[in-house]
Amino acid sequence: MKKILHILSLAAIAASLSACISVSEQNVEASKQISVMAAQATATCGQGNVDKVSTNSFTCKQNTGR
């Protein structure tokens, strides 16, 4: 019984560590996507004219002073 509990606890630790690595890789990928979209937003909207950037889109600030 003690050996089974030991094996189960080791399996739980291994599973929790693998979940942390998976989340970390997703965060790195999301950061890369944000960087790509930010560069595209700056090229399209112009420096200082970017309103919002996400992993898959961006918006430019509205020009209200005409």
Given as residue ranges, the uncertain stretches (5+ residues, pLDDT < 50) are: none
The biggest sheet amounts to:
2 strands, antiparallel
Q: Determine the strand fraction and express it as a percent band.
A: 5-15%
How many E-type strands? Answer: 2
Please estimate the helix content: 55-70%
- Main β-sheet, spatial strand arrangement: 1-2
In angstroms, what separates the terminal alpha carbons?
78 Å
Mean pLDDT, to the nearest integer, reads 80
Structural class: mainly alpha
> What is the H/E order?
HEE
Q: Supply the number of helical segments.
A: 1
Query: What best-fitting shape do the alpha-carbon axes yield?
Result: rod-shaped
Q: Cα-atom Rg, whole angstroms?
A: 22 Å
Keywords: Signal
Organism: Undibacterium rugosum
Protein name: Lipoprotein
Signal peptide: 1-21
Quick overview:
This protein has one helix at residues 2-45, and strands at 50-53, 58-60.
Textual characterization of the structure:
By secondary structure, the chain is mainly alpha-helical. The chain has one helix and two strands; from the N terminus they run αββ. Strands 1-2 form a two-stranded antiparallel ribbon. Strand 1 (50-53) and strand 2 form a beta hairpin. The N and C termini lie far apart (78 Å). The mean pLDDT is 80.
